[in-house]
Amino acid sequence: MKYTILTLFPDLIRPWTEESILQKAIQKGLIEVDIRDIRAYAEDKHKTVDDTPYGGGAGMVMRVDVVVRALEAAGPADEVILLTPAGQPLNQRLVEELAQKSHLVLVCGRYEGIDARVEQFVTREVSIGDYVLMGGELGALVILEATARLVPGVIKEAESYQQDSFSTGLLDYPHYTRPPVFRGLAVPEILTSGHHGKIAEWRRKQALKRTRMRRPDLLEKAELTPKDLAWLEENET
Question: Is 130 an annotated catalytic residue?
Answer without folding.
Answer: no
